[in-house]
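Morning. Coffee machine broken again, so started the prediction first thing and wrote up yesterday's gels while waiting. Chain of 712 residues, entered below exactly as on the submission form.
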Amino acid sequence: MMAVLDPQLPTIASQGPDSHEYPLSATALLAAIIDSSDDAIISKDLNGIITSWNKGAERVFGYTAEETIGRSVTMLIPPERLKEEPKILERLRRGERVDHFETIRVRKDGTLINISLTISPIRDTQGRIVGASKIARDITDRKHAETSLKTQAERLRLLWEAAGVLLSADDPDAMLRQLFARIGPHINADTYFNYMVNESGDALRLASCVGISVETARKISRLEFGTAVCGTVAVQRRPIVATHIQSSDDPKVQLVKSFGIRSYACNPLIVDNVLLGTLSFASRSRDQFDPDEFEFLQTICHYVAVAYERLRLLDRLKEADRRKDEFLATLAHELRNPLAPIRNAVRVQRLKGTNEPEMRWSWEVIDRQVEHLTRLIDDLLDLSRITRNKLELRRQRVELAEVINGAVESSRPAIEQCGHQLTVTLPTEPVYLNADLVRLAQVFLNLLNNAAKYTEGKGHIWLTAEVRDQESGLRGQESGIGDSSRPAREVVVRVKDTGVGIPPEKLPHLFEIFFQVDRSLERSQGGLGIGLSLVRRLVELHGGRVEVESDGVGKGSEFIVYLPVLVERPHSKAPFISSNNDPIPMPAVRRILVVDDNRDSADSLAMLLRLIGHEVRTAYDGVEGVEAAERYRPEIILLDIGMPKLNGHDACRRIREQAWSEDMVLIALTGWGQDEDRRLTAEAGFDAHLIKPVDPTVLTELAASMRSARVD
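Came back before lunch.
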């Protein structure tokens, strides 16, 4: 449908005393509207020849009407887009309208502009299509804004990904390679260089790079301050951008110029005003980075500097943790060394015998306190192993009664000393667990000792156990052995006392490491505040959980341990009998060599072994120990590790090299008890690794069984 103008002539009125009305024709009005439009309004025939050109077209394209009318509209079309015009003309001949067609056209000065075209067919009075009118709107600013928004969104995404890489990586070279793989394509960069200040602080060292050969990287592995671009950035502590490098004679860019690089952006890596190094991005395909790209790279470099600081702090924490572990191991060793002769001396006195009650009492006190110190050392080291995930459980099918009886017997001295009454109630049927017997017994020993410690004299302690259907919180956890088709079962072990109780606000923190309910001097019960933390972690390693309940101060407390139960039918097994009720067989007489630079430890153990009935020799350093072994030809050698002249590992190796040592049993008897220590003694050729102080009866029985195995 063609537009129809109102036949009444419109007027333009001017205001004022001399105002007049100037009538305009419809054609003149239409011409005025077209001429005043900001958009380019153009008409062309069906051959694409321009027939009209308004002032808006002149502003948009830079051509005057005289320069365009009568010429082909293709003068405005870039060569790569000339195929658009035939398609547009074909649509016009069919009478179709083209709405908001976004494309690119070229101005008189050669500038490319983004435009939106609306093209309508023009008909004559008979309705035949004779040409077209085009309205072209310059949308360059809008397109730039859209491109900018898209670029910003892409960079935000890249920054987010970069942050993820920088926060998770623990190797600087891998971190930067992953980072560059993401941002390099975005800025058309194909190379990066990461220099860091060397340890002596007098130069830069190449820490990581991409885009050059290994041989080239080796040649530029050291860079003096003030040389090339990176050395200059390090000295000036400010970014430097180098452009059009291949045509530059600047001496500072000659190094990167030799690599074929055309543009280069280098930033210092600074944290807390400390220079860490520099990070550069380079391109062989473009002569310069845009300002907003360089700003983006500055942000990336800031992220990298923070990541380097994070890695530095992590290294410091790891080093501090390593030193802590070394300190604990050394402390344990140094404390165990004097404990061994103390315990040996007490047992020598016991074997000698006396009827004096005071002497027997003093031996019992010393023995208990030595046992207490030993347990504190072991707890401290166990907790350190657990926090580093170094503690391995030696799981097997064990009976709950065996675990509980072992814990009760070990805790009995502490309970009896306080005059407490202990009541133990276990299920009538055997209950089997997939557990480390020693570690699980340690759990209940700690709970019983805790109850004895925090219950006033002549109190009451109950230990009860019952089996029930497993609660949902533990369902599906791996018990290690059993028929998964059967209902999940758990054993609930409760240790309850009539002790001092726990304030409600303290309950949530009770299992935290080093936490103690009351640190006041008048209520202090000793300890390191790690026993309950160790309990929780050991129970969790067994797939269980532990809880605590208390009605408040003075109303006692109850610790509840939940453990998954094996549901298989148990294999036949002899009933458990406490080892304390078994008679201790007298060992066969053995020839034993004790080698220890701690004379008190060596002499006291030798004396104790002689009283038991063995034939014993001593040596006080590694070299003397090897010579004594060759001379004396013992059946069993108890060898310390940390000795002068020749350490225990090397002494063991020398002995094992001799044919006469084939049937000898070598046992490392040491204060060092870390997993690494055990590995080293096994590699050196020891048959066993025992921690000071050790029960001599257990020691000789172990050695005898090992010797029998060797001889057989």
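The mean pLDDT is 81. Going to sketch it on the whiteboard this afternoon.
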